[in-house]
Amino acid sequence: MTEISELLKGKTDCGCGRVHTCPVKQVYIGRNAAQKLPELTAGYRNILLVADENTWRVAGIPATEMLGERVAARCVFETGNALLIPDETAVRRLRDAVPGDCDLILGIGSGVINDLCKYVSHSCGLPYDIFATAPSMDGFASVGAALILNGMKITRDARPPRGIYADTAVLAASPLRMRQAGWGDIIGKYSCLNDWRLSAALLGEYFCPEVCALMQSAVDRVRPLAAGVRKGDESAVEALMEALVVAGIAMSYVGNSRPASGSEHHLSHYFEITGILREKAYLPHGIDVLCSAVITARLRERMCASHPRRSELPDWRKEIRRIYGASAEGIIALQDKTGHYDSGADFPADWEGIRRILASAPGEAEMRELVEEIGLSMTEFEELYGADVIADGILYAKDLKDRYTCLWLWYKYFA
């Protein structure tokens, strides 16, 4: 896999014809990263540190000691045993904590902290850096900020961090579930890259073979490391963190999340959103992604074993209202705009060619084995959500985004 330092330079001679750039300026992943912070943040004098109570103990205190009087303020979210949700309240809390003379926001944490810092720094016109405390997700270097607004999972336009830092000892000591989630987020790329090829073939969507190969290389590097990630081996966790950063760079290259997010992510978002709406438990994002990739692998196999025909299904607007409640109207408006329900442009006339694309992704049995390799269980996933919730997700998780995936093909021609 290409060195991250080279990827940050971008690519001007890509075979797809586009110029690929990444706004991230520097990445440091190694031992004693906190001690490097004075050098990595040189030139900034009024820094806001942002963390939750757990990440503050792990890395916020060492960061404060190293930066000294350059820390102008801190914002530490105290949630107790509850999850920190990147909603309107959290956004307002962070925005109110930004000092008037702040020149850099430094997030100490991973998924939610990164998204909050990304969004607020962008809205305030400030640069931000992220000091990762767990290799739990692939959004460190991505453009969008994933938020929960009005009860819906929404990706807001923002910008990647100026710098990404991680101490391999801190990463290796992070909770196992977070390491499993990061590994699952990468392995889920088998599904999303197949969706990208599918949409390019059916709808003519832009597709870059070189960016796709870059992401596939990251998946191939991480796949054999499950045992090391589970044990907290520093070299394995370092390689995982690098792959997660590469995923964000790949997203920056194409200007959206297509190289890293597809049907498996849409299902994950569905489980999270319906969990929040119904006050039900849900799994960490990357674990949902990995288990959802098992579901999409099953759908691909079933489609390959059949032939497309027009599906007769209930009124989709009625079903969206049933599933998403108060959040339904925004979803309906999105799908009215995409026109996927009304368009027949995706009917696979060249079915053998489409079948070859679908069959190129790992099958259900292989994906189940990967779930077990990282120490997870599909049984836990299936029992937590139940057959009815999973069945609804297969049909209506696709509606949360404007992106075409195998879930649309299944819904319209195989369900």
Compact summary:
This protein is α/β, with parallel strands linked by helices. It has 2 domains: 4-174, Rossmann fold; 180-205 and 258-413, Dehydroquinate synthase-like, alpha domain.
SSE order and pairing:
Elements: H1 4-7, E1 26-30, H2 33-40, E2 47-52, H3 53-67, E3 71-77, H4 88-97, E4 104-109, H5 111-124, E5 128-132, E6 145-149, E7 152-156, E8 163-167, H6 168-172, H7 176-187, H8 189-203, H9 209-222, H10 226-231, H11 234-254, H12 263-278, H13 285-304, H14 316-324, H15 328-338, H16 351-359, H17 364-373, H18 378-396, H19 406-413
Parallel strand pairs: 1-8, 2-3, 2-4, 4-5, 5-8
Antiparallel strand pairs: 6-7
Helix pairs in contact: 2-3, 4-5, 7-11, 7-13, 9-11, 12-13, 13-16, 13-17, 14-15
